[in-house]
Amino acid sequence: MRALAVAIALTLVAPVAGHADASWSGTVPAKARALAERGRAFHDAGDYTHAIAAFTQAYVMAPSPALLFNLAQAYRLQGDCDDAALMYERYLATNPSPDGRVLAETHLANVERCIHKLALHIPVESAPSRLAVPAPPVAPALTATATATVSRKAQLEKDIGLGLAGGGGVALAVAVYFTLQAHAAEDDVAAAYARGAKWKDIAPIDERGKTAATDAKIFGIGGALGLAGGLVTYMIGRHTERTPVAVAPTRHGVEVSMLWAF
């Protein structure tokens, strides 16, 4: 259940990039960078519980293979074999460098043996004494080219919203044009009747006015819907930028909460 809770927490964020060395566009949120540095400090001090909490919150804001490796290391050193195995597997799924893969696979084999022993109720030594390979320094903090999936989604929503709003504005302008054309045709019909013109001469003018009125109605409705939908989509994007996700450690894993405030 603890491993499942961690998997759900990281899945709710976004899929990890397909390659550990892949570049990410954008800028790392300052809070994510601070959390990653705080996690490294806790890790170096041997406080793995707080290191896990900091790394997890940083990952929510800016997913990175390096943070997955950091989480795996912290869980392993804490003695949590299940969650360590899960994090090593997610890190290996990002297609890391050959050296990183060898190291992660070695640690994964160790924690899988630990899981097997626990399943058979065989006592397991403390984490430091059972390490077959010395733990390397924690992976570097997030690079300046990383970005959170939330930021990319928010920017896309804002762009779509602006596009819809712009299209709606153009449609409303066209509706105004056809409305003026309809009124002009109506005035021409009235003037023709005043001059004693016959219906066969007035009919084309009347038909032009009716067509313009219909076009004005269509563009008016479409423009209003586009403008309203664009504004709503843009505001959703602005709200998504705030990353309303909080992750807190619990006795059995992590707890994910989302805050909505408009």
Could you describe the 3D structure shown?
The protein has a two-stranded antiparallel sheet with strand order 1-2. The protein has 8 helices and 2 strands; from the N terminus they run ααααααααββ. Helix 3 (48-61) runs antiparallel to helix 4, helix 4 (65-78) runs antiparallel to helix 5 and helix 7 packs antiparallel against helix 8 (199-240). The two termini are 34 Å apart. The chain has helices spanning 2-11, 30-44, 48-61, 65-78, 81-92, 98-119, 149-194, 199-240, and strands at residues 245-250, 253-258. The chain has 262 residues and is mostly helical. The protein has 2 domains: 2-147 and 245-255, Serine Threonine Protein Phosphatase 5, Tetratricopeptide repeat (Alpha Horseshoe); 152-240. The relative contact order is 0.14. Mean pLDDT is 75; it is low at 1-26, 126-137, 139-148 and 258-262.
